[in-house]
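Dear support,

I submitted the protein below through the web form. The confirmation email said the job was done, but the results page showed an empty box. After a refresh the structure appeared. I'm attaching both so you can tell me whether what I see now is the final result or a partial one.
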Amino acid sequence: MPLNEGPRQPGGRRLSVNPFYGPANPVGDMAEAPPTHRLPDQPMAPVTAHQLVRDELMLDGNARLNLATFVTTWMEPEAGVLMAECRDKNMIDKDEYPRTAELERRCVAMLADLWNAPDPAAAVGCSTTGSSEACMLAGMALKRRWARREADRYPGARPNLVMGVNVQVCWEKFCNFWEVEARLVPMEGERFHLDPQAAAELCDENTIGVVGILGSTFDGSYEPVAELCAALDAVQERTGLDIPVHVDGASGAMVAPFLDEDLVWDFRLPRVASINTSGHKYGLVYPGVGWALWRDADALPEELVFRVNYLGGDMPTFALNFSRPGAQVVAQYYTFLRLGRDGYRAVQQAARDVATGLAGRIEALGDFRLLTRGDQLPVFAFTTAPDVKAYDVFDVSRRLRESGWLVPAYTFPPHREDLSVLRVVCRNGFSADLAELLAQDLERLLPELRRQPRPFTQDKGAATGFHH
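What the results page shows now:
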């Protein structure tokens, strides 16, 4: 969660009050406007509190038109009902809510089978609040395995983790919080993610693992996990170093199994020790739920697992959080049951078709150059064509926002800070009809943008809230 500062002026302003919000007496019941940055002195009627909060939320963007987020913004009403019925269940209370715990176990087993674990029954895993927590848990397991292996040198030796510079910010947080050196493979030319050979060259006896991303947040492309494992196989043959791979499948791990079945990226590769995904991204569940799986019990050090009593038995738990609602796990199980493999395949194919179709439509306008086409993740990135000088991607993002579209513009990391792009995430609920409306709005804006004397966005850092 972002850190928040208090009001800059003591006391802050007060909420504006409409007399009609008084449930009985329009004047007497709303005589005092409530403050914004301290608790009001008196309670108010629930209908009044509801209306005050709802009025402020009207100024939020429309989630369905938010093409920046990977997070699910639409589910079936039946899923919403189930979530409402389970929002008071605490996932940590396994003995109080044994069926919710059982649904979590089933989801782990389904994912182990989906990701081709050698023995799905032997794979271990857990639900999390999202991929960020799942990545933290996977990183902790990698570090603990390395520390146990290097017990004669640790803590004197400093561990490192190798990954592409395009990783999501949660990996930077992990390295910071758990005192691990981040070794980043930079972008080069038209390669916008990790290069297997470059990653292998950064590895040494202190490397706890290498992260491969199945679906980069910057452009939607898959990193070559099989080639990465092959490069690390060569390192082991040459040096004896056995370096595990974690696959950050926040998005792609719920796309590739259905649309790219011949792509080998998962537990079929013996070097892949763990995988995470976001149930609340292409897992098609509202936030927040994620999943972390290890290929077997040996990949997850036993000392990291806490055990609680579960109906007289034993329930192991591995999490950074403690109390959290069971609603999202129940919704994930509902979605697995509801869609099955064929249903997921249909939904993800529809999203990919929208992405590739919209990418082609934007390319045909002539003002833009595609970096990716949405044929891996249903996500594509594009920038202005070399001959476009009157405007830039930040101007496009700003003008699209006037029509309600939230399309992020941002600059790439080292060594491609010179490249600024727009990115479109096509999720379930962003239909071909909505994509057509976006294309029409973009085409309508182009004559005005072309007439600009120069790009108008001066502060590129403030042009968009998107960073990863």
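Response: this is the final, complete result; the empty box was a page-load delay. The longest helix spans residues 327-364.
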